[in-house]
Specification:
The chain is mainly α. It folds into two domains: 55 residues; 42 residues. Helix 4 packs antiparallel against helix 5. It is 85% helix and 0% strand.
């Protein structure tokens, strides 16, 4: 505990108003630059995201959607084994898709 108190006393003795003002001014300047260049930084971030993970083509999106729908129908069919009328209705829906 005495080490902590001595550290606080040393920090209080080394306190400089000019240093504190410079620190606050620097933080305010950094925040202002971030706000000013926010659209540019957001665009750069999106471009980097597209480099790492490119968007799927329309055909690939359609194939994924169809596969997801088919998997959902098969899960629903497996869950509806106890009620044949619901299973028949789902099979009819699946044959139309």
């Amino acid at each position: 505990m005495s080490t902590f108190i001595s550290y606080l006393q040393a920090a209080a003795l080394d306190f400089s108003w000019l240093g504190a003002v410079q620190l606050v001014f620097g933080l305010a300047l950094a925040a202002a630059l971030l706000v000013l260049f926010k659209p540019l930084l957001r665009g750069i971030g999106r471009a980097l995201l597209l480099v790492v993970k490119p968007k799927l083509s329309k055909e690939e999106q359609l194939q994924r959607r169809q596969m997801r729908d088919a998997m959902m129908l098969s899960r629903m069919l497996n869950a509806m084994d106890g009620s044949p009328s619901h299973a028949a209705e789902l099979r009819a829906l699946a044959s139309r898709a």
